[in-house]
Backbone:
């Protein structure tokens, strides 16, 4: 009986072991099948993650140059230190070692190294090659360095709002850097490597390299020396009159090329983070204001071109006029006077300008203003351009036409107004302003930007008559301080009260002075506008002809010499 019982027990043990073996074998088979077939891709990705690594090889960002090849933006090679927290052995010890070299808080570094769920964290970016070499010598597990480009602006504050700047990731954030981001940035490459368990590259292993495609270079229409003089003169006039700001735009009236576009105060590109963000704006295209008497060139030229008045017509002008429910007066005259159309411009007569506008009527005057491009962006290839405000004539009050005639009840940018002056300078054509002269791609192909077709908006005869009137304004009118020796300069002054912040009425203590014009008279090649916002001084000294005109003169004189125009032609 005992033997039989033992045999049964042994048989049960054998069956149990057999079943256990079969189950283990089945589990093994299942594991093999699941690893090699069912979940093969999953485990393969795990293996690749542990043994393969991918580095981004940054494309070199293209340069930004002025029209004479002077560098305004370029890229320098810097180093970046980063970590793979999964490969870090002792976060505390490695953080302590790095903190001494990088001059960083050890706790901050340790927190990054403890992020084991991450495979990549930046420790510090854009460090020197010397510091990177010290880190490499430590041979810390999971700590690596790589090349990274850093944007550098050799001229610093020159044309800062035009050039713009990039962020830490080398992405354009403002100006040309933003507008032409894709072209400048290029296409990043990749470097895929095989590494051992310690994160080191395996010698002789097959590594894949996809080379980056560097960005193209952009050549601007800007002349650095004209830009520098414009910025310097704006700083001087702003400080002298304790103004809020001042703006200047220098433009070729024939082609629309921008030689300079400056605003003061400005900022430094290499330290832009230290400045208020409001200074990043390009004032030439973003600052909007009521132009005052400079707008009379649009009014008078439109009336002449539409045969509503004649260029040699004589007007008997009273000292005041009622338009709707508003009475508008001359600034310095309390008696009737006879002015020709040219003298309305020469002496900047408000009553004459209103008489001109009334001769056109609401609809025709509105359509003429629209032809000049007001109320919409000019189309310049820069970000952040404002279109200004021009209400449809159907919504005008009875007095609006009188206000518009003298440059009120409309909001414009400096670029819009200097473009309007260019229409008179070039014989009646509206041109599209442009800031980029050409693009140079990495395959040495040079792509020139196609200039947009000029649109005729007034006749050549009208334009020439307006040139005569603007010449008289400078030679013997309100703009005499813009005169340049041996150069015939055409221009128009502007002195406008600023609207109250409530939008109702105007403030006598807050004005904008401006001067717009071009030269030389016979063949205009340079057009300039200068705007000075809220200059302070004696009431009898703060006008467009006294504040803005002298600055216009200095910038114009330098520009003509620099470009070898007129008497300065080689």
Residues:
């Amino acid at each position: 009986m005992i033997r039989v019982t033992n045999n049964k027990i042994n048989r049960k043990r054998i069956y149990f072991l057999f079943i256990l073996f079969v189950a283990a074998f089945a589990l093994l088979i299942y594991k093999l099948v699941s690893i090699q077939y069912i979940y093969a891709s999953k485990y393969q990705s795990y293996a690749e993650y542990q043994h393969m690594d991918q580095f981004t090889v940054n494309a070199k960002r293209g340069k930004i140059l002025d029209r004479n090849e002077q560098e305004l933006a370029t890229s320098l090679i810097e180093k970046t230190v980063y970590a793979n927290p999964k490969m870090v052995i002792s976060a505390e010890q490695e953080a302590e070692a790095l903190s001494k070299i990088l001059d960083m808080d050890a706790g901050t570094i340790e927190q990054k190294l403890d992020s084991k769920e991450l495979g990549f964290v930046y420790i510090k970016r854009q460090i020197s090659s010397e510091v990177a070499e010290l880190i490499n010598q430590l041979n810390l597990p999971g700590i690596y360095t790589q090349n990274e480009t850093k944007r550098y602006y050799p001229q610093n504050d020159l044309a800062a709002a035009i050039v713009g700047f990039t962020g830490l990731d080398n992405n354009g954030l403002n100006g040309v850097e933003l507008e032409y981001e894709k072209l400048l940035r290029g296409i990043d490459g990749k470097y895929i490597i095989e590494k051992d368990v310690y994160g080191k590259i395996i010698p002789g292993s097959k590594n894949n390299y996809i080379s980056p495609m560097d960005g193209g270079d952009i050549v601007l229409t800007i002349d650095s020396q004209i830009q520098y003089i414009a910025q310097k003169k704006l700083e001087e006039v702003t400080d002298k009159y304790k103004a809020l700001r001042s703006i200047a735009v220098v433009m070729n009236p024939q082609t629309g090329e921008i030689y300079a576009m400056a605003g003061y105060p400005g900022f430094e590109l290499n330290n832009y983070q230290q400045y208020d963000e409001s200074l990043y704006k390009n004032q030439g295209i973003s600052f909007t204001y009521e132009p005052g008497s400079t707008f009379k060139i649009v009014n008078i030229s439109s009336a002449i071109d539409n045969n509503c008045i004649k260029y040699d017509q004589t007007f008997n002008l009273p000292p005041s006029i009622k338009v709707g429910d508003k009475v508008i007066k001359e600034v310095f005259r309390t008696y009737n006077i006879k002015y020709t159309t040219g003298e309305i411009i020469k002496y900047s007569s408000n009553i004459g300008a209103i008489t001109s506008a009334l001769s056109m009527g609401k609809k025709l005057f509105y359509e003429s203003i629209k032809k000049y491009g007001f109320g919409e962006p000019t189309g310049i290839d820069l970000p952040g351009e404002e279109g200004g405000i021009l209400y449809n004539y159907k919504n005008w009050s009875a007095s609006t036409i009188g206000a518009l005639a003298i440059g009120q009840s409309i909001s414009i940018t400096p670029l819009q107004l200097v473009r309007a002056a260019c229409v008179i300078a070039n014989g009646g054509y509206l041109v599209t302003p442009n800031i980029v002269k050409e693009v140079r791609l990495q395959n040495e192909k040079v792509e020139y930007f196609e200039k947009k077709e000029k649109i005729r908006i007034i006749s050549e005869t009208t334009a020439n008559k307006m040139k005569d009137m603007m010449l008289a304004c400078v030679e013997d009118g309100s703009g005499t301080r813009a005169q340049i020796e041996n150069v015939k300069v055409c221009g128009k002054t502007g002195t406008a009260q600023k609207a109250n912040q409530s939008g109702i009425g105007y403030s006598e203590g807050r004005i904008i002075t401006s001067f717009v014009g071009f030269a030389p008279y016979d063949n205009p090649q340079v057009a300039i506008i200068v705007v000075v916002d809220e200059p302070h001084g004696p009431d009898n000294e703060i006008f467009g002809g006294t504040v803005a005109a002298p600055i216009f003169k200095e910038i114009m004189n330098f520009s003509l010499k620099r470009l070898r125009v007129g008497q300065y032609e080689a």
